[in-house]
Write a structure and sequence with these properties.
The complex is a heterodimer.
Chain A lengths: L1 H13 L5 H19 L2 H11 L19 H4 L2 H9 L1 H6 L3 H9 L13 H15 L1 H7 L16 H12 L35 H4 L2 H10 L4 H6 L7 H17 L10 H21 L9 H10 L1
Helix pairs in contact in A: 1-2, 3-8, 10-14, 12-14
Chain B lengths: L1 H27 L15 H26 L1 H7 L3 H31 L1 H5 L3 H23 L3 H17 L6 H5 L3 H16 L29 H5 L14
The chains are: A mainly alpha, B mainly alpha.
């Protein structure tokens, strides 16, 4: 965006010159190629804190995702950009390294960061690279994750109840996104069986690495269908916190849940179909069942 | 690449064929635009096949249409678990009804010799597509349940993206349910074969039959003069009257 605006502003000044076209191209090229490189590591740090710090550290060990120490020397920039924008696409394209990482981290997909431009990502990698240098690495371990990791463990009953409402849909999401239960199931006696299109979330809290992981998933869903469902309907931080609290409750209570296994769809569906057939019978049993001349026709056939 | 062909090229191809083909058939072969009814040839089995089949399809067609046009309303309705269950169970019941009716209709065509005489290759194709469509639909509804909600969540945007000529297939291509993909693909195929099959009758449904008054058909001529008439073709005596 920034480059475009700059180019447009400068354009009128160039018109009197002899070869404006060439100059415009040269200027545009300058802005296109120089500006991104001119981004300071400061921007990279901000981007990192905002988008990555929930699940990653640079030095100081793995969290939900791997420690990013030295990742910029380990992988090519091209690979990193692909991975960051959509790790699942990279995995599906058959990249062996991507698959190995996915498997190593319990098949927990990384949320897509498709909203970051290539320039943003380059600044981000520059920051990670600078943090990975031995001189600064010593202090890197003190990176605090942006999301408190134990928020949902201290959640009140009210938060959990609110989260449950959001999950089953009785409490609408403020931005109009669909309720979780559309596609996800949890084994929790209090709620009806959930959707089966996507993964069961009964142990999601521990599987995704607690608050940070779920926050990442709900903030920038890495699954195309989920991305589409919440496009322009982002779940707010408050809602994410409540849903996380509910998922924590589900996860910690899962051992003592007695979930009724009544199959609503099958029994209800076939029962309903029988009722419909009965209704059709009742309404149209008096219909004329044969053509007008059926009796005459039969008599003729008989006499042949 | 396969996904691109199945979820972008196929829909557009089918919609184009449907649009152009239907208009062409109506303009050039207007009298073939009908359900090609065989009720005169066989009526008893037809009733128990056709009734549940058509009621099932009728409700499901409008169910899908409503979820496409008013996704927010559907999500709001599904907000209460009880309402979600009612919607899903009712829809499933109509699905079962449609499948049962279709099976009876297939059976009718296989067992009634009179109907077989008027059966064309396209009728076989119609049965294959319908069986695929209804069975995959029921499998999706059962194995990937709460379809009414997720249809509104991400299939409506996909379908809308097709109609506004900005096709976005990532969501549907990423879905982990084969029956859902089959359901979508066969739905577009069904639309594509409409101009070539008896499916075309749904475009010319005689809606006014619902409220028009009864028509009484009476022989009002001198029967003897009809029998002996030489005005049309060579007259011959009716055998059964």
């Amino acid at each position: 965006m920034r480059t475009k605006i700059a180019a447009i502003k400068i354009e009128p000044m160039l018109i009197p010159s002899k070869k404006p076209v060439l100059q415009i191209i040269a200027l545009a090229a300058y802005f296109l190629f120089m500006l991104p490189n001119g981004l300071s590591a400061q921007d990279g740090e901000a981007i990192f804190k905002q988008n990555c710090a929930a699940c990653h550290k640079v030095g100081g060990g793995r969290m939900v995702g791997p420690d990013l120490m030295g990742v910029t020397t380990k992988r090519s920039e091209e690979w990193l950009i692909k991975w960051t924008k959509s790790s699942q696409s990279l995995i599906k394209s058959g990249d062996a390294d991507a698959k190995a990482i996915f498997e190593e981290f319990n098949q927990t997909p990384m949320p897509d960061q498709a909203h970051l431009s290539d320039a943003d990502l380059k600044a981000l990698y520059a920051y990670v690279a600078s943090k990975s240098e031995p001189a600064t690495a010593a202090t890197a371990g003190t990176n605090e994750p942006a999301i408190a990791t134990d928020a949902s463990k201290n959640a009140t009953a009210e938060d959990i109840e609110y989260g449950k409402g959001l999950f089953i849909g009785s409490q609408a999401l403020v931005n109009g996104g669909p309720a979780c239960i559309s596609c996800h199931n949890v084994n929790y006696a209090d709620v009806i069986p959930g959707g089966l299109l996507a993964k069961d979330l009964t142990n999601a809290f521990s599987r995704l690495g607690g608050d940070a992981g779920i926050h990442g998933m709900l903030g920038a869903p890495p699954f195309p269908a989920m991305t589409e469902a919440y496009k322009n309907k982002a779940i707010t931080d408050k809602e994410i916190a409540a849903i996380t609290a509910f998922l924590y409750k589900v996860d910690s209570d899962k051992a003592n849940q007695q979930v009724a296994s009544f199959n609503y769809l099958l029994y209800g569906g076939f029962g309903g179909a029988v009722m419909l057939l009965a209704l059709i019978f009742l309404i149209w049993n008096n219909r004329k069942k044969y053509t007008v001349k059926k009796s005459i026709y039969d008599r003729q056939i008989k006499s042949i | 690449m396969t996904n691109f062909l199945l979820f972008i090229v196929l829909p557009y191809a089918c919609l184009a064929v449907f649009l152009i083909g239907s208009i062409y058939r109506y303009k050039s072969r207007g009298f073939t635009v009908s359900s090609i009814s065989s009720q005169f040839l066989e009526g008893r089995k037809l009733f128990w096949g056709s009734q549940p089949f058509h009621w099932g399809l009728f409700v499901l067609f409008f169910g899908h249409l409503i979820a496409f046009l008013f996704p927010r309303a559907v999500l709001a309705w599904n907000g209460q678990p009880v309402r979600l269950l009612i919607l899903e169970i009712v829809a499933f019941a109509f699905g079962v009804c449609a499948l049962l009716g279709l099976v009876l209709l297939v059976n009718r065509r296989l067992t009634s010799r009179r109907v077989q005489v008027v059966t064309s290759k396209m009728d076989v194709l119609v049965f294959v597509i319908l069986l695929t469509q209804i069975i995959s639909g029921l499998l999706v509804a059962y194995h990937s349940r709460w379809g009414s909600s997720w249809f509104a969540a991400f299939l409506t945007p996909y379908l809308r993206s097709i109609f506004v000529f900005d096709p976005q297939m990532d969501a549907i291509a990423s879905v982990n349910s084969l029956s859902l993909k089959v359901h979508v693909i066969s739905a577009f195929t069904l639309i594509g074969v409409i101009p070539f099959t008896r499916f075309i009758h749904f475009l010319v449904y005689p809606v006014d039959y619902l409220w028009r008054s009864y028509q009484q058909v009476i022989w009002n001529w001198n029967r003897k003069s009809i029998r002996t008439s030489r005005a049309h073709s060579e007259g011959h005596k009716s055998k059964n009257n």
